[in-house]
Amino acid sequence: MPSTLLKNFIHGRHVDNSDNAFFDVINPSTGQVIYAVQTAGETLLEQTVTSAQEGFKIWSKTPAIERARILQRAAAILRERNDELAKIEVLDTGKPWQEAVEVDVQTGADAIEYFANLSTSVMGEQQSVGNDFFYTRHEPLGVCLGIGAWNYPLQIACWKAAAALAAGNSMIFKPSEETPRSASLLAEIFIQAGVPEGVFNVIQGDGVVGNYLVQHPAIAKVSLTGEVGTGKKVMAAAAGTLKTVTMELGGKSPLIVFEDADIDEAVTGAMLANFYTQGEVCTNGTRVFVHKDCYATFMERLLVRTRDNVRVGDPLDPTTNLGALISNSHMQKVLEYIESGKDEGATLAFGGERIKPPGCENGYFVGPTIFTDCNDDMRIIREEIFGPVMSVMTFDTEEEVIQRANDTIYGLAAGIFCQDLRRAHRVIAQLEAGICWINAYGNSPVEMPVGGYKQSGIGRENGIEGFKSYTQTKSIYVGMEKLEGPF
Ligand code: NDP
């Protein structure tokens, strides 16, 4: 077992499991085991539920302004420890340092600050009905469960915890087995900031551990970020006790470049939408539709910039802008998709291979890959790859591209590049996607609700909508006159 051992974080402290079951975590850029993690068994899972129930009793009665003050302190600590946390994210995920140091911790802290600020402005309604009246209270749900994916481990933990805790809930969070460390540090930071014990617990393990809690009758809500297949399993398991669910799932999003687009900006958008975080972003615009009149210019500039500006290498090197994929098995999956693209007749215009950067020869790197001559039926067009693989197609008319963009089971995101304002809004209104960008791609400020249409998800995270999803409405009718009845 590696010398460093991460334990489950329950009721304000790291807790040993009794059987010492553990799993290893691998640095994707080296293929080396970097630490081990204790798996939560049934005893710890029950302990975490009891702890979260106790935490909820205290936290839900803590005045919102006090909760806000405590959460603001946690956000400040996150910002102070930005570089330390960013490094953990780089080592666990393989993403470039230059991204983690600017984005991952800061967007997590943004979420905590935003929801902390919102928590004091929750107001009910009051309405007269004759001489009687009613009012409403927005109350927390209870113990919520957050289950995270591995691509933005800290950000996902912060987004879920921030909304849940600001609304007065407690949360048990299960990070992905591949990236378990930052959520545990977040739990320590919450305690340091003054969040009561049990309000944010982190349990470790795989889908079996997640499933145990999803089915647990004491859990009021499950918020999952993961694949569509996992979403279906979790939703089915949650149905047994009729829990509320929020599902942030996968996608195969279209990015449409019209003939009047600023082509340099469209190329920037397409590269961001496919190569950022080495393509491991749920909202990626992997189906790039380019109008036939600007296709030649778009491709020429895209290929030059991919060749000259994408730097695959050691993720800790600040000049690297494309890091390692999360695991060997995921790299093999991405390489198989690339093979299937070639087999199905697409033209490999760039890349398509595993890369072994100096010093990281055993890491899981795939270089930026661009396919052209794709058609709508190929697997690389229909299935989520979650790697740096861009597929470019041409189109002729607005009507045609809208129909093709919507021809998918997914509906997470969509982007368009064009100068014609009316066209931009007309087209966006017809795209079946929950998160859309016009002349931009990928930005997701916490103020903006995010979530998917169709099989890409249920419910919304972030924004006021995300906050409300962690509350339930109680209506209270008040009789002001003598009550009379037929009995
Ligand atoms: P997975 O669906 O494999 O896993 C997500 C989480 O669910 C992990 O913590 C996993 O545990 C857990 N899990 C797996 N099975 C179960 C189960 N039966 N019950 C409860 N929990 C379970 O996703 P990945 O981690 O591979 O992440 C990539 C996926 O996430 C992509 O599809 C991507 O599009 C999507 N995603 C969506 C986002 C969005 O906001 N819409 C954002 C980011 C990613 P473990 O892995 O430890 O076994």
TrEMBL record:
Catalytic residues of the enzyme: 248
Keywords for the protein's UniProt record, in alphabetical order: Metal-binding, NAD, Oxidation, Oxidoreductase, Potassium
Domain Aldehyde dehydrogenase: 16-476
TM regions (residue ranges): none
Catalytic reaction annotation: betaine aldehyde + NADP(+) + H2O = glycine betaine + NADPH + 2 H(+); betaine aldehyde + NAD(+) + H2O = glycine betaine + NADH + 2 H(+)
SUPFAM superfamilies attached to this UniProt entry: ALDH-like
Pfam family, one: Aldedh
Highest rank taxon of the organism: Bacteria
One Gene Ontology MF term: betaine-aldehyde dehydrogenase (NAD+) activity
UniProt similarity note: Belongs to the aldehyde dehydrogenase family.
PANTHER family with a match to the protein in the record: ALDEHYDE DEHYDROGENASE-RELATED
Quaternary structure (record): Dimer of dimers.
NCBIfam families: PRK13252.1
The name this protein goes by in its record: Betaine aldehyde dehydrogenase
Gene name in the database record: betB
